[in-house]
Design goal:
Blueprint lengths: L2 H7 L11 H14 L2 E2 L13 H10 L6 H15 L2 E11 L4 E2 L5 E8 L2 E5 L13 E2 L5 E4 L2 E7 L4 E6 L2 E4 L15 E7 L10 H7 L6 H4 L2 E6 L2 E6 L2 E7 L3 E8 L2 H15 L3 H26 L8 H7 L1 H15 L2 H6 L7
Parallel strand pairs: 10-15
Antiparallel strand pairs: 1-12, 2-3, 2-4, 2-11, 4-5, 5-6, 7-8, 8-9, 9-11, 12-13, 13-14, 14-15
Helix pairs in contact: 3-4, 8-10
Pfam families: Acetyltransf_2 (PF00797), Tmemb_18A (PF09771)
Keywords: Acyltransferase, Membrane, Transferase, Transmembrane, Transmembrane helix
Protein name: arylamine N-acetyltransferase
Length: about 350
């Protein structure tokens, strides 16, 4: 893994030899502006991991995004490479429907210490609740950022992160009552303690979030990216572009066209090989190939093969000849396309 390659990925062009507050703020903001918060992989047959090398290859080399355990684990490696003093912490996300925090640490954050002060770095909460810069660990202090006003509260037992939003102005009234429009002006995001953790601490939560039918990440695909003026997010088939204003957020929502949904269905068939005809053609190809190989072996070990002409030897081995001609005919007929690539175009 190469720090310079990561810095190129987030489009950092400054000097990175100083582990100071300015550099921390810069790389934090560039990370959320260039690396999406997303769970698309688990809806495409992939499985998210806590293996740092795999995460690095996915996000840095393949220009993908990731969810909190991936992005913030990668960011902890960046902090280490740049010489920052940091501690991994575990957070419990607030369930607004049940009005309580989740029972396990399912959110990965980093605590960074610079010049005697501590800051919460979190590059992967996503959507409207994504902090652009680290938050100073001080209780009750309003910390305004473009997405809203963030606030850390220490109740003596744990820290709680809150956010105060602006009013949401939905441009298309057809979406005014959408469940994706968060109309709460103040909301609780998550709680945490200062108990140090390591990456293995989040393995159970990572497995649960991508297997439990009650997990939000299993119910909907999510992909969001912060922009200089707001953020963009695709949740399921609903695309939203949010623009931050002084006293409100402009929310432009659209439904992805049906023809793209049809393409997605065809793509799923392709990846999963769901078309029944594919299995039948594969079986035919396997049977003919085995027959051809068996006939070829008998043809080669026959002592008379070298004593007679080529065509005479084929005449003496009709099983091999017929199998070989059939196999060649199948390829001319396009069987290689039928067993490898079902149609991806919507009908």
């Amino acid at each position: 893994m190469d720090l310079k390659e990561y810095l190129n990925r987030i489009r950092f062009t400054g000097q990175y030899d100083k582990a100071d507050l300015d550099n921390l703020f810069t790389i934090h903001k560039l990370h959320v502006m260039n690396i999406p918060f997303e769970n698309v992989g688990i809806h495409s047959g992939e499985r998210n991991t806590m293996d740092l090398q795999i995460i690095y290859d996915k996000i840095v080399k393949s220009n993908r995004g990731g969810w909190c355990c991936e992005n913030n684990l990668l960011f902890s490696w960046v902090l280490k490479e740049m010489g920052y003093k940091f501690t991994i912490l575990g957070a419990r996300v607030y369930n607004s429907q049940e009005q309580q925090f989740l029972p396990i640490d399912c959110h990965f954050i980093n605590l960074v210490e610079i010049d005697g002060k501590q800051y919460i770095a979190d590059v992967s909460f996503g959507v409207s609740c994504q902090i652009w810069h680290p938050l100073e660990l001080i209780s009750g202090k309003d910390q305004p950022q473009p997405p809203g006003v963030f606030r850390l509260i220490n109740n003596g037992m744990k820290w709680v992160l809150e956010k105060t939003n602006r009013k949401q102005l939905v441009q298309d009234q057809a979406f005014a009552n959408s469940s994706l429009v968060d109309k709460r002006l103040t909301k609780t995001l998550y709680s945490f303690t200062l108990t140090p953790r390591d990456a293995d601490h989040f393995q159970e939560a990572s497995d649960l979030l991508q297997t439990s039918p009650e997990s939000l990440f299993m119910l909907k695909s999510i992909c969001s990216l912060q922009t200089p003026t707001g953020y963009r997010v695709l949740i399921g088939w609903t695309y939203s572009e949010v623009t931050f204003k002084e006293d409100s957020d402009l929310v432009d929502m659209k439904i992805i066209p049906d023809y793209l949904k049809a393409f997605e269905r065809r793509l799923t068939e392709y990846v999963s090989c769901l078309q029944p005809a594919t299995g039948r053609w594969r079986m035919i190809l396997i049977v003919v190939s085995v027959c051809t190989a068996t006939g070829a072996w008998n043809w080669l070990i026959d002592p008379d093969t070298q004593k007679v002409s080529f065509f005479s030897s084929l005449w003496n081995h009709p099983f091999f000849t017929i199998s070989c001609v059939t196999l060649i005919g199948l390829f001319f007929a396009g069987i290689h396309k039928r067993v490898v690539a079902p149609s991806m175009y919507p009908s």
